[in-house]
Amino acid sequence: MAAQVVQDGNQTTSITPLLHEMLKWSRNNDSYTSAATADEIAAAISLIFTNQLGSVQCSSLLTLLHATRRDWEPLVLARCGQRMREAAAQVDRQALRNIIRKRGKKQGSYRGGFCDLVGTGGDGWSTFNVSTTASIVASSLLLLSKHGNRASSSTSGSADLLQAIQPRAPVIDAVTAEALPLVYEKSNYAFLFAPTFHPGMRHVASIRKQLGFRTVFNLLGPLANPVDEHIEARIVGVPLEELGPIFAEALRLNGAKKAMVVCGEEQLDEISCAGKTSCWRLVDRPNPAFRGPRDEEDEEFTTSDEEGEPRTLVDVEKFILQPSDFGLQAHPLSEVSPGKMPKENAAKLMELLRNQLHQGDPVLDFVLLNTAALFVIAGVCDADTSDMGHGDDGKVIRETGPGRLRWKEGVRRARWAIESGQALAALERYIEASHAASGK
User: Fold this and answer.
1) pLDDT confidence bin for 237, thresholds 50/70/90
2) CB-count exposure of residue 29 (10 Å: 0-12, 13-18, 19+)
3) Is the pTM of this model over 0.90?
């Protein structure tokens, strides 16, 4: 073992050996040559969540991770994300499985599991809250577990937006780990407020603020969804193209099989309404070396040979998307940013959900792009039939674009969700369920 953590006899634990290991420098290669493993780094990070790491060593660890760029290694991100989820408030797994069986609407290759649409933040654009809005719209057809927080670098975070909704806002901190299954009994949508599910993060809040630079925790949010093992599909936005393949590999290492990482060419952590977006899609393919039953009807299915070849292998495909692939016009980012304050964004959200924005409105198209993409990645657009409900003409758009996927069909379904009123109804059910959870 290259480095160790050592009990110092008090409440805290010393990670001095690990810090020394991380400081090793090669004059020949002009680079750090640390042999510290991802598991060792993640074990040190986990001490933060139980307040077992002193502030000096915590600051040193975060600074070294940043300076050596170990926090950009896929395995480090994957292992730290795992430790963060383990330290989170735990949700009843069986209750979530029951929710999927009861409420999940299978269509196409979508099996009814939970989905998430999230960005790392920090892109500097302060655009309209598109991922939160798109997640609400998408919950008309999908089960959504939107993991988010208040604003850090923007003017309006996902939590700020939801709490500014009028005339009745959801009680976001009432949706606890214990209450979550009850919320899903009434709603396809739930907002998992990070401070409620990750109370251990309070121990590092002041340190992060004092450091003044982005740490590994600015990257871990999309990897720390408390119901991660039940997430069937997700889209993750990153603010730098260099992070795209890193995040795709971190998701793959975490066991994700259906996901897409996106970065707008403006270094935007969303699918851009202005131009090109780089995409890294995780694709689950049959493993030719697998020996066993080919059908997997139940998510509990396992083979007796756990050491054998896996049923499927996950590859990463890279392609470029742009608004025209969705059948939409492009809009300069200036028309959807800088983002307004939460109250103004919440008013725009409600206008959109009430179908009061005109066709071609920049914010509407921005939301349609991102909602459509989640529908596509989840698999509902693979279906050759469509019976979403009132207002659905059933005319599936089979045309494919980049990645051989039906982006225009995603937009058709997203428009239906808004125009039929189902997206608004989904939000109202979530608000009602959150109030029931709060007892108010």
Assistant:
1) very high
2) exposed
3) yes
